[in-house]
Structures are given as C-alpha cells and as structure tokens.
C-alpha cells in the first residue's frame, strides 16, 4: 500500500505545475471582461490577495498586453479605499 501511495504522489506532483498554470490562466481570463467597463491605459494595478501571486500578474500582462503593477500591501487596498471613502463622508 505504501508503494502505491508513493507512486500516486509522484505522478500527481508531475501535474502540479500544469494545474497551477491553468488556475493562473483562469483567473487572468476574467480580467478582459473589465475592459468593456473600465477604460484601460498602458498600465494596470492589481490589488487584493491574488496580486501577491506574481504568476497571475504575468498572465494578466500576457492576456492584456499591459504592464501590470502590484500595489504595495495589495491585500488591504480595498479596505483602505473604503476607509478613505467613509472618511470623506461622500459615500462614494
């Protein structure tokens, strides 16, 4: 039984890079939908926790032909924006 587990584990580990690449492409595939709603420039800023995954940013660059910048502390950018709007008192 142990030998079988090692064999399955070894075979599975060979596919991990392909699985991760597919996940990165799937995430990047969602971004072009925004192009119709948000005017794109030469650069785009990626925020949120996924921005910490450089492979996703590279895939977005490839798909959109843009330079992707990762915000400092990308995982808190949404909260920071909400706090700024709340502090402004304008409600958005």
Model description:
By secondary structure, the chain is mainly α. It has helices spanning 2-29, 32-35, 54-64, 77-88; strands at residues 43-46, 67-70. The protein has a two-stranded parallel sheet with strand order 1-2. The longest helix has 28 residues, at 2-29. The chain is extended. The mean pLDDT is 78.
Q: What general outline do the C-alpha atoms trace?
A: extended
Helicity level: 55-70%
Number of helices: 4
Radius of gyration: 19 Å
Distance between the termini: 60 Å
Give the SSE layout:
Elements: H1 2-29, H2 32-35, E1 43-46, H3 54-64, E2 67-70, H4 77-88
Parallel strand pairs: 1-2
Entry summary:
By secondary structure, this protein is mainly alpha-helical. The protein contains four helices and two strands; from the N terminus they run H-H-E-H-E-H.
Looking at this protein, list some descriptive labels:
9% strand, 60% helix, mainly alpha, 4 helices, 92 residues
């Amino acid at each position: 039984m142990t030998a079988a587990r090692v064999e399955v584990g070894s075979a599975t580990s060979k596919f991990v890079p392909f699985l991760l690449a597919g996940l990165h492409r799937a995430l990047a595939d969602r971004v072009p939908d925004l192009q119709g709603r948000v005017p794109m420039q030469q650069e785009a800023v990626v925020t949120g926790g996924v921005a910490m995954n450089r492979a996703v940013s590279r895939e977005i660059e490839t798909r959109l032909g843009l330079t992707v910048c990762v915000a400092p502390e990308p995982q808190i950018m949404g909260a920071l924006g909400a706090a700024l709007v709340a502090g402004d008192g304008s409600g958005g």
